[in-house]
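Annex B.
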Amino acid sequence: MEMSMKNLKAADILEDLESKLAYIPGGRDHDGRPLIVINVPPEFDSATKSKLEFLILYFISIFSDETKENGLVLIVDARHSAWRVTRSCIRLSTNLIGSKVISVIVIRPDGFWDKRVDSCTKSHKEGEPLYITLTRLHVYIDFSQLPYELAGNKAYNHVEWIKKRMKIENYSKDALELVSKMTNLHQRLNTFDGIRIMQSDDVESYWEMGIELLSTARHILQSGIYIFIY
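SESD1 protein: predicted structure tokens.
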């Protein structure tokens, strides 16, 4: 899959989003930092790696600069995966997000992967991933901020989230096109050529453009209820 890493849109990575390899449930930690959840897959081949990379980059682009400045929380659900795969997911994700990651919480299986991981959990250091079982997740994230899949009580519908994101991006595109057309119209009307056109038979086309701009603006404003900010 080849595409520009910049200006990613939901439609560009729809299949990746639908996989739910990673998602944003809308919850936050005790300090108000948003959560990004990664469902660690059984294997981490090149296709899965590329998919996770696009998802993380897309999610980062969604958050405002202020939100990213305050930090993000990465929850890695590794209950059904091997330590080797989990480690690869953590490395890729933290490298992409960088210093914006304030904490990484890894939900491990009830049984430890090996003694080395067991040792890490007992001697946790600042800045290192925290390995815990699902039953202890609420110590760090309130139940009300966790989706059902993580033993919380926050309603989250992944299919609806994707639909809303696509609507938001379509409306944003319409808004940008609207601004561009209005700017062009304003510039032309402020020139001698614009005055001449307004006195010609082309006045009808300008009238139609004005009606289109008004209709688009009304549509965007009425649809604002679907827009949510992180």
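Residues 10-155 form a domain with the Phosphatidylinositol Transfer Protein Sec14p fold (CATH 3.40.525.10). Strands lie at 22-23, 35-39, 72-77, 101-107, 130-132. Further annotation is deferred to the next reporting cycle.
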